[in-house]
Specification:
414 residues; alpha/beta; Aspartate Aminotransferase, domain 1; Aspartate Aminotransferase, domain 2; four-stranded antiparallel sheet; 17 strands; disordered N terminus; binds ligand 7TS
Length: 414
């Protein structure tokens, strides 16, 4: 079995960092400062070792082998379902669909639910701060069905304009699809209120939780959302894997999105009948190891403690905002009252990619660009921002290095 996992009774950042070997390297001659967690978080050794153990000793295809190894692999693969259900407080494990990530989860709903429920003139409400993954699939389905996309505007501080949202809801609203935490602004949206309002208007709701699940407790029953999507690689797990939570009563009535092995009940050339959810939506050999890796990542998060993570990151982000605010010429893009571990900023006369390149020379990894959220950057009149995004293994020292790096970058343009 993999090495016994380390006990972490309180959030001790130095102890936690021992579990992330990737953080202990030099980049361009400097100790790495990793502030690109919004794109992909790092993996603790416990997850890496669990993946290694699976590949060395447990690998077999799932759901189809009578032999012992296949049964073992199936058990380990399926174990993520109840674990994820408990992690987001889903009512039952069959509401958890394995996908390849948030993008895949949203495409599944857009195609399976959207293509069958939308008709000419129906309305889909998105927000101005969506990632392209929560825009483009709806546009593609709207094009096929004649549905119309409406957009909730964002205020100057980077919050959703809820009064405008209320006015957009009509009896024709069939779907409200909104991000929980914005990857470009860091705004935490009031998803329960948004969901309640949508339900009052008779609409179904999808929440894009890609940037929420690594940073805060998510309770899908409390939010009341019908669908909730997220990715394993942003929550200390492997790439190529993600989750779609779907309300059972809706999933039962949804057709498959992809055809193939595993998603069927009976196949003849005349007619095919389909498996029950979630298997109906999981055609073909899945990312078996990745599911096992996600289980381990959820265990790891559980040992650190989501309450601890929330508290720790809130303090760290507050520290970062205060330090960055003091830098002459720096302008935040997104200053919502409720914000998570993402800070975006610009300088009027320095391009974000220049800042990012110079920071990299100092070993500091940030993301620059439009963050796959072009409409919201357009809303703020900027082509790109520099974005620092945090995880619970970041420290105040990382923030200090970032501030020093930005001052250094600025000195080239003065
Ligand atoms: N939704 C949000 C809010 C995201 O931040 C991302 C990825 C996605 C959806 C898509 O997730 P995927 O795992 O299917 O790719 N966001 C980012 C980012 O901010 N930088 O790189 C990827």
């Amino acid at each position: 079995m993999p090495q016994a996992v380390k006990d972490i009774p309180v959030l001790n950042v130095e102890k936690i960092r021992e579990d992330f070997p990737v953080l202990h390297q030099q980049v361009n001659g400097h100790p790495l400062v990793y502030l690109d967690n919004g794109a992909s978080s790092q993996m603790p050794v416990q997850v890496a070792e669990r993946l290694d153990h699976y590949h060395r000793y447990e690998h077999a295809n799932v759901h189809r082998g009578i032999h012992t190894l296949s049964q073992k692999a199936t058990d380990a693969y399926e174990a993520a379902r109840p674990k994820v259900a408990a992690f987001i407080n889903a009512a039952e494990e069959h509401e958890i669909i394995y996908t390849t990530g948030t993008t895949d989860s949203i495409n599944l709903v857009a195609n399976s639910f959207g293509l069958t429920h939308f008709s000419e003139g129906d309305e889909v409400i998105l927000s101005e701060m969506e990632h392209h993954a929560n825009i483009v699939p709806w546009q593609m389905v709207a094009e096929k069905t004649g549905a119309v996309i409406k957009v909730i505007p964002v205020t100057d501080s980077g919050e959703l304009d809820l009064e405008a949202y209320k006015k957009l809801l009509t009896p024709r609203t069939k779907m409200v699809a909104v991000v929980h935490v914005s990857n470009a602004l860091g705004t935490v949206n009031p998803v329960k209120e948004i969901t309640d309002l949508a339900h009052e208007a008779g609409s179904v709701v999808l929440i894009d939780g890609a940037q929420a699940v690594p940073h805060q407790k998510v309770d899908v029953q409390e939010i009341g959302a019908d669908f909730y999507a997220f990715s394993a690689h942003k929550m200390f797990g492997p790439t190529g894997f993600g989750i779609l939570y779907g309300r059972k009563s809706l999933l039962d009535g949804m057709p498959p999105y992809r055809g193939g092995g595993d998603m069927i009940d009976k196949v003849t050339f005349e007619e095919t009948t389909y498996n029950v959810p979630p298997f109906r939506f999981e055609a073909g050999t899945p990312p078996i190891a990745a599911s096992i890796g996600l289980s381990e990542a959820i265990d790891y998060i559980g040992r650190v403690g989501m309450d601890q993570i929330e508290k720790y990151e809130a303090k760290l982000v507050e520290y970062a905002v205060e330090k960055l605010r003091k830098i002459d010429g720096l302008r935040f893009i997104g200053e919502a009252e409720e914000r998570a571990s993402v800070i975006s900023f610009v300088f009027d006369h320095i391009h974000a990619s220049d800042i990012g390149t110079i920071l990299d020379k100092k070993g500091i990894a940030v993301r620059t660009g439009h963050h796959c959220a072009q409409p919201i950057l357009r809303r703020f009149g900027v082509p790109a921002t520099t974005r620092a995004s945090f995880a619970f293994y970041n420290r105040e020292d990382d923030v200090d290095r970032l501030v020093e790096g930005i001052e250094y970058a600025k000195s080239f343009f003065e």
